[in-house]
Amino acid sequence: MRRVGRQVAPGKLARIALAALAAGATSSTVAAQDVAGEGRALSPRNANYAIEVTLDPGAKILTGKQTVTWRNTQHKATDELWLHLYWNAWRNSESTWLREDQIRGRSEYGKHKIPGKDAWSYLLVQSAQLVQEHVRTDLMAGRRYAAPDDGNPNDRTVLVFSLPAPVQPGQSVQLEMTWRAKIPRTFARTGFRGDFFFIAHWFPKLGVFEPEGWNCHQYHAGTEFFSDYGNYDVRITLPERFKVAATGRRRSKTPVSDGMVTHRFQQADVHGFAWTASPDYVTKQDTFSEPGLPPVELSLFLQPEHLAQAARHLAATKATLKLYGTWYGPYPYGHLTIIDPAYGAGAGGMEYPTLFTAGTRLFNPPGGGRPEGVTVHEAGHQFWYGLVGNNEFEHAWIDEGINTFSAGRVMDVAFGRRAYVKRYFNPAKTRRGGFFPLLFPEIRLSRMVHANGLPGYRSAAISDAQSRPTFQYFPKTGARLSYGKTALWLSTLERYLGWKTLQRILSTFFERYRFKHPRPRDFFAVANEVSGRDLGWFFEQVYYGSDAFDYAVSYVSSTAIRPRGWVGPDDELSYRAGKPGAASGAAGVNYRTRVVVARKGGAVFPVNVLMVFDNGEKLLKKWDGKYRWVMFEETRPSKLDYAAVDPERVLLLDVNYRNNSRLLVSRAGLPATKWASKWLLWLQDFLLVFSYFV
Amino acid sequence: MIERRKTEAWASINDGVRSTLGAPGLVSSLWLANLLLALPAGWLVRQHVSHSIGPSLFHQTLREGFDLDWYSEYEQATGGLAATLRPSIVGPGAVLDNLELWFSGGLFSQHLSLLALALAHAVLWLLLLGGIIARLAGMQGLETATDSHATGEVLGPAGLILRGVRMSPRILQLSVVAGLLYFAVYRLAWIVFPWIERACHDVTQERTLLTYHLIAAVCVVALLTAINLLFDYAKIVVVLEPKLSPSSALARAMQLVVANAGQVALVYYGLGAALLAVSALYLLLAPGAGQSTTLGILGAFVVGQLYLWFRFAGRLVFLGSATALYGRLCGKAAPLPSAGRP
Q: Is residue B147 less than 8 Å (CB to CB) from chain A?
């Protein structure tokens, strides 16, 4: 059992922290400039941070000092600075984050148990001074907490400083702060478990000043983050036994005193900084190199028990860098760190600039999609989130949706369809699932349905319009719209426009909005421009609307044509009796086939209708899909075998694909018998097991 | 002395196997009863699946294998008994799913219709158990005399049922007590496993937690099997010693198990290991999802049914061996040949 390692007395830690802060104080304000000196600026670099932080691993406390240099890039002045204090989301149960999470019913904080004292967190700003043209002004007196989203007076995740004078367009200010933070027991992917620490969204961080004013939302349970790009220079002081990984490159590792060391990391042109520390990490280094793409140094920080899975992590990361790099644009930073978090830490599957957390288990059979799937997804976020920095509070679909779609595509291209896995031996019934996986190689998951999240979307299809700000989505269904619906409508566009066109749309969007904050209309404009079509009708439905798509073949018939009654020319009328279809199968007989296709959902999409006849003849019809139903009538020498609407499954948003095809005569009997017989065996075994107790 | 105990245990297992092999009709009847009880539910699920596939083209992919695209729609559109059809029932999953349910106590939190079927199966087993023990004892020449049966008489089907029904109230009393004990073990497990999880909230390596869970699991399985073993003997006593009350039978069984723990354990856990080996063999050979013809589907069904037949035979071997050992320990059986003595 691994527990917290050697602890340093709090008083001692405080002295070390002060010493470390003092040592860095002289250089901190210029550090951001040093980073900025690294080559050509890729981003506006208008929010630059120099941070010195000390970790007390025993008390789970961070003590920090930071200088933020902010430049007003808008065309209007502001007399306020708005900052996120994300860790106050777990300060107490009345925060907006925890209130929302109670609705989701996912959090142990919200639903199940009152957490222990060590689980809660806070982020307290202890001092704040504005430095503007060599004048220092204390901002603490004019500070206030704001709750712009819900007015929750108990939420303290947004702090506002009033400034003595407005910051004019193009003008820069420096904000010097000291703060203290209690690290939560790992929660929302940040915090500690034993002596494993994953520290993300941990320091007071500026919101984004936009033409409409400050965009600085409260921290919500269902959404993530939004920040400006800048340079980060971070010094982390902690006991020497810890291995440390962080955003950026390590510039130095300097002993401080009493077994403490300071790690210095720097990174330019990013919008966040995360780090992790654990004495357990084993590291692997590798290099990604691919013709036409810049090389990337890969650093993998693994749990010792996962050493055998190192190659799988690296292969998945390389596949992502290669395919995203080819499809959208190159990864420009030259280095990338992959973190395998501690078991049960809940820190897996999250993206941060130049660093991401994957997540695996002790036993994971090849072909089961893990750890490859999560690694590809989070590596992919380096592009969609890291480089294209959309507002995740309001438009999470841009990064999550495009990335879900892209990651599914990478998995398909690089690793093929994954097999269904069931995990056994889960005695404590945790969300992590059982310890021992069983792979069902015959049962394969498809990209279009499963990687895109159709099953989840199906139940949430009409819950919200995607255009609603993401933080306002209903907490239980929000992710299904951001991730699943977007991936599904992108896959629909892939099949409707063709991959080449969609790839050009996405690469153009990527190229234009790297290091920027694109909005939905920017994506739609690029899609229209690159495709050469007005796709407004499509986005109107999938983005602004919340109707479901559901096309169905609601009726088929195919009967021999044998007129009855008075037949023949007017002067040779003859009467013919008989039953309809009585001459079925006779030579020279034609069949009248009728196929009714219905639109059962509210949303409209042009569809193909396929008719396949007994003699193998195929007939493809087009329908604009607008009316509630349409009938196709054909006369052919053969009977209909089946009809299918959208047979190529272009419209992946269709919530019911079972009704998309219809045979003239159902052939469900044999497969139904087959699956019922397998279920029967399970039931018999169940009964037999039950008799154990008699 | 130890050698003699081993010999007695092996001889009892031998008797148990012989008496089971000598009653293929009984095994087949039990298997058939199980099948017949499950069939209506199977038919119901077939109707659900058939309705879900309907006239759609999913019939092709479901014929060739398991189609998760179809299943994602099926599971969202169905409920109740039909919802227990899931991908993991394919191949070895069917057995492992139930093993997991047995271990976790999840058997009791199933859909109501499943529980009703399980209860019916248990009642059937309860009504027959006394007769089965008496029949196995009779085949082994044990004293099974009651007011109407002679020593060593092998019961016919009618006698078996009659004897079983007559014994069922006494066996029921034992089953109720056993049930309470099983429940207590599960309750304990439901406390212990989450406690381990909480106590290990600073553990950072999965294998550490897995080790603790495995240790706890071994304890839980040991308790469950110990109860099962004890009550198997109590039921044998209650059948073979009709003058004893169920509580006295339980006391005697306890005495016997404690006094002869080595032999009893050797018989029970030796057979348990053999049963696990048979199950493991089936897990390796279990037909998967790929049968697409009527013949293939039938073949897979037959393989599965054969496995179940062996499971029933295994249950009888357990009972027969325990009965034989009880006979030996209580002097109701013929003594072992002198060559086997130390």
A: no
